Amino acid sequence: MSVKRIEIVLILLFTLIVITGTITHEPWRDELQIWMITRDSSNIKNLIKNLKYEPHPYVWYFIVYPFSKIFPEHPEFLKIINFIFIFFSIFLLIKFSPFPNYIKFPLVFNYFFIYEYGVISRNYAISLFLLFLYLSNYKSKSIWIKALILFLLPQVHVLNIFPLMLIFIITIYEFIKKREINIILPIFFGLVGIILSYFELFSQEGFAAVTLKGKIFTLNVKMFLRKIGNFLDAFVYIPKMGIHFWNNYFLPLNLKIILSIILLIFILFFLNKNKVFMLSYLFIFMGLLFFFSRFHPGFLRHFAYYFICFIILLWIYNLEKIKVSETKNIIIAVLFTFQAFTGLYAIYMEVKHPFSQAQNVAKWLKTTGFYRNPIIGYRDYCTSSIVALLNKPIIYAETFKEGTFIKWTDKDRWRRSLSEIIKKAREIEKKYNKKVLLIFSFYLNKETVKKFNLIKIKKFSPSIVGDESFYVFLLSDFQNNFSKNFSVFEQLMCFFYVIKR
């Protein structure tokens, strides 16, 4: 089979797998938070103002903004935008990467590419696109294209600073070695991007809130070792089997730490033909480790930057035709193959199980007409995904105010007790003469339900994201003035669900 045909087959297979996962994927809160902020901002100025509640730079929001304004009731456009970026990322990888086929094939179907960044619509696919676009132009003399890419990278995600620093080091090294390339403009634009990103993030209260409410971790040996264990997850993610596989790790921490150290030694040994490449990766590893130990604990999607930075070096390594033994390449291919199987397993679980139950809750509320009644959601960051799909604000128990997107730094935002929530629900019922629906993102046992005189109307469970299963309740005195507060249809629906219990 010709190279061109192999490339076409790879692209078609990747497209088929990712579209399958994307179509069946139910969006969750982190995806929908962006949609709500852009949708509910009256203009760009208001959007920038609302971004103070967020922990990310501006570019992803600016891309989503026009779609959320034109199609406010269709957050499915997030999937389309994300797919476009991941598709062209993989197109660039297949078409321009210098890897041998036995490395390229499993890499294309890597867990992060086909699932974490391919199916879940966040600002990671655009990061991959920019990085692969840069690498595809690495040998070209398109200085302005490179400069623009390096400027945009830190505007998309704060962690892009690490691959950007890696590119800086290698670019300066190449300049010293050959003195044939113009490095001033790209590096200048990259530094401007970092500075702009810095001012964007540190003017945002949300960035401080996400980094554990602005408190920097106390660096200690235990935390440091724990974070070393996550290095393995970036290359060999072994999830717990079952519906809650996502961000759940099978291997015990002590074993992960040992295997992570062995893997790091192997990667440094792999790169040792060029000491600059080897030391630059060690530098980036220490930088990421420090970031996760000191500022933000990170999740699997963040730990992937260990892997992405290695791919960058591997790409350039092959472009420079630095010889690597066949044995080392085969080991890398085996690691990539393992991640490909994990990615396919994730797609299988995505098709089989709902990622989040928010979509089902929103559909049910619209179908039954219950969306017209006051709704109290608890916890806010979980039930916010329902709000996005319902396209209607609800009352968040943490603030007892109506809202859509979460304002992490709202001074009125407190964790409430169930007794406080029930009391507030009764006040609202009395004030508006309407029954209040209570939606919780956690299970209430029979004793608790009985204690607070609640009636369970509907359960939406299970889901891949554990805290995006939902439980709908009414206060137990809903029989009083029932006909005044509900339509005949709603009364029948309520009766059906209560009897079903």
Strand content: 5-15%
Judged by helices, strands and strand pairing, the structural class is mainly alpha
User: How far apart are the termini?
Assistant: 60 Å
Which strand order does the major sheet show? 3-2-1-4-6-5
Instruction: Give Rg in angstroms.
Output: 25 Å
By DSSP, the count of extended strands is 6
Q: What's the domain count?
A: 2
Give average pLDDT, whole number. 90
Q: In which range does the helix fraction lie?
A: 55-70%
Classify the oligomer: single chain
Shape type? elongated
The H/E string reads HHHHHHHHHHHHHHHHHHEHEEHEHEEHH
Q: Could you describe the 3D structure shown?
A:
It is a single chain. This protein is mainly alpha-helical. It folds into 2 domains: 3-352, no CATH class; 358-500, no CATH class. The chain has helices at residues 3-24, 29-39, 44-50, 59-70, 77-96, 101-108, 111-116, 125-136, 143-156, 161-178, 184-202, 205-210, 221-235, 253-270, 275-294, 300-319, 326-352, 358-368, 380-390, 418-432, 446-451, 482-485, 488-500, and strands at 375-378, 394-396, 401-403, 437-440, 454-460, 470-475. Helix 8 runs parallel beside helix 16 (300-319), helix 14 (253-270) runs antiparallel to helix 15 (275-294) and helix 15 packs antiparallel against helix 16 (300-319). The model is unreliable at 478-485 (pLDDT under 50).
